[in-house]
Amino acid sequence: MTDFASVPESPEFWGTALYIVGVFGLCALMLVLSWLLGGRSAARARNEPFESGVVSGSPEKLRLSAKFYLVAVFFVIFDVEALFLYAWAVSLREAGWMGFIEAFIFISILGASLVYLVRVGALDWSPQARKARRQREEKQT
Amino acid sequence: MTAQQLTALLPFFVISATIVAVMLAISVRRHHRLTAFLSVVGLNLTLLSLLPTWLAGTGPVQVTPLMVVDGLASFYMALVLVATLGVMTLCHAYFEGYRSDREEIYLLILLGALGGLTLACANHAATLLIGLELLSLPMVAGVAYATSDRRAVEGGAKYLVLSAGASATLLFGLALIYAATGALDLKALAAILVNANLGQPLVLAGAAMVLAGLAFKLSIVPFHQWTPDVYEAAPAPVTAYLATVVKAGVLAAALRLFHAAGAPPSPLVVKALTILALASMIVGSLLALRQDNLKRLLAYSSIAHFGFLLIVLVAPGSRSLETAGVYMATYLITSLGVFGVIALVSSPAGERDREKLSEYQGLFWQRPYVVSIFTAMMLSLAGIPLTAGFIGKFAAIAVGVESDLWLLVSGIVLGSAIGIYYYLRVISALFVPMPGYERVSESMSWAQSAGGVMLLLSMLLMLAMGVYPEPLFLLARP
User: Fold this and answer.
1) Which of B31, B112, B281, B371 has the smallest count of CB within 10 Å of its CB?
2) What string of DSSP letters covers A91-117?
3) Structure ipTM
């Protein structure tokens, strides 16, 4: 367990402390200086965020398709799964053939689930594709 | 890895291969019967793959620090697999008339079974957590399977949030214990529970959180609030799954956590367990009294039952391991029967399952065979002699008497006494003749379906356990 009493004596501690104080100090300094030195004016549109001359829309009224959410979640899931491969990649030689077989199984299961997702139509997010799939399925049954 | 270790892991390989095969089969062609057939074949193969290790009798096989395959693990793996098979046959009968996609439920149930197997073999905090998540996350989707039903989705969301909270509590508890002692191995954790004292605040806080997390999954009072709601919202086969497989898997892990040290846990932990057990017995039984909904009633009855079962965690030893096995097996077969009947008399085509007690009034005069099975199972839940439930309760009381846990024993007696009232209330409702009803058998189709055969078998097994329990005790002996 770390001995907390001895921590302040280590040189890294003072360096880190100085850094933290510096970061907050710099932020405070910039905010205070601009508040003291900057001019102020009030108008109706002053407080709106400015984005390249285009009036920004109101995001609470924008309707996003739930399909995008699904695709984003798939992306996150596969991304996280791919992360595990990095752990294998850095220990490739140490893991040996056993590790290779295990990684192979892992990747093939990932591939199989991708096949499943494509086949059940989780990835066609355009309305036309979904409509076509539904018609195809109705024809089958 | 040696050949022996690979053989010990064979069930995991077989069930994982089954899961991938079922997934690919669905993606090639959606076919309800084919998917069910593949899953059942895979589960049977998994059950067979338990045999080599069990027959070899080489004692515990340690596979990496994470897992151990011993007698306890084999017994609970077998329980999980048999219960999953039962639920599969129910699913097949229940979802046949379901209009939307019905194949994925098998995938979810298989994934849950894999989690159950992992829990049964868990020998490390990491495996414990992975198993727990693998067991409960697929069931979130299972509870909300009928996505067009608002109630089911609500139940699923409830289960998701609450069970994630419970898992986080458990994880935090493990982290606290790890911070204080550096132990992650279940055997080391068990020793820590034995030696816990007031001088170790981190360990005590961690132990309390671990206990809370496990108690949530076993639905012990005061962590039981989700049980009736989720049981009610889930389709009947999924409810059966929650009541059997999930409980069996978590119980196996809890047993390992409390028994691995071979000595009773410290007085502080015993006190906490006793309070939880007594609260579950009394609150579960009392709340069940006023239920008009059969699924909710059974949820409260399961809360009371797991209160009874906690006695085996308080008094470790080979005797209480045996008792836990016997009690779990009898409870499993009985709940499978009860929820099976609910699944068979309901259909997903309707708005909701047949679950109101009033809908069961006089059902005997229309479906005499199913209701006979239902009656026998209810009597078993009540613990009437000659049924399996009696044997389980008897063994639990015997453990309590041997270890001088009189408070818990009197709790079991009181809880059972209240229990008889509400079980008999259901049974009497079944036999009340309804004016205007024709006394004809509604349909015989249940006998042809696999679900009916499964129910009949489980009733026979239940009666066999109750009349001649010797083999069951031998099997459950660690």
Assistant:
1) B31
2) THHHHHHHHHHHHHHHHHHHHHHHHHH
3) 0.84
B318-345 and B368-382 helices, crossing angle to 10°: 150
d(CA B391, CA B386): 8
Judged by CB atoms closer than 8 Å, whether chains meet at B23 and A112 is answered as yes
**CA-CA distances (angstroms) from residue B211 to B206, B208, B313, B400?**
8, 5, 11, 21
pLDDT tens for each residue of B364-423: 887 888 889 999 999 999 999 999 999 999 999 999 999 889 999 999 999 999 999 999
CB B279 within 8 Å of CB B225: no
A100 touches chain B (CB under 8 A): no
CA B138 to each of CA B109, B143, B220, B252, B432: distance values in angstroms, whole numbers, following the listed order: 7, 9, 22, 19, 40
Cβ-proximal residues to A27 (8 Å cutoff; 6+ apart), any chain: none
Tell me the C-alpha distance between B69 and B53, whole Å: 8
- At residue A54, φ and ψ (nearest 5 deg) are -100, 130
Token pair of B136, please?
């409960």
- The pLDDT tens digits for B253-295 are 999 999 888 788 888 999 999 999 999 999 999 999 989 999 9
Q: Which of B1, B27, B101 sits opposite A115 (nearest CB)?
A: B27
Per the CB < 8 Å rule, is A118 touching B27?
A: yes
At residue B61, φ and ψ (nearest 5 deg) are -110, 115
Fill in the amino acid letter for B15.
Answer: I
The phi and psi torsions of B37 (rounded to 5 degrees) equal -60, -50
CB B340 within 8 A of CB B86: yes
What pTM was estimated for this model as a whole? 0.87
Percent of chain B with pLDDT over 90: 68
Contacts of B101 in chain A (CB under 8 A): 120
Using CB atoms, pick whichever of B20, B27, B101 lies closest to residue A109. B20
Pairing mode of beta strands B61-63, B67-69: antiparallel
**Two tokens, residue B311:** 């006695």
More confident position, A45 or B226? B226
CB distance from A44 to chain B under 8 Å? no
Instruction: Tally DSSP H helices, then E strands, for chain B.
Output: 23, 2
Chain A residue nearest residue B181, CA to CA: A1
Could you give the 3-state DSSP secondary structure of residue A54? Answer: strand
d(CA B417, CA A19): 69
Residues of B within 8 A of A116 (CB-CB) are 23-24, 26-27
Asked if residues B154 and B125 have their Cβ atoms less than 8 Å apart, the reply is no
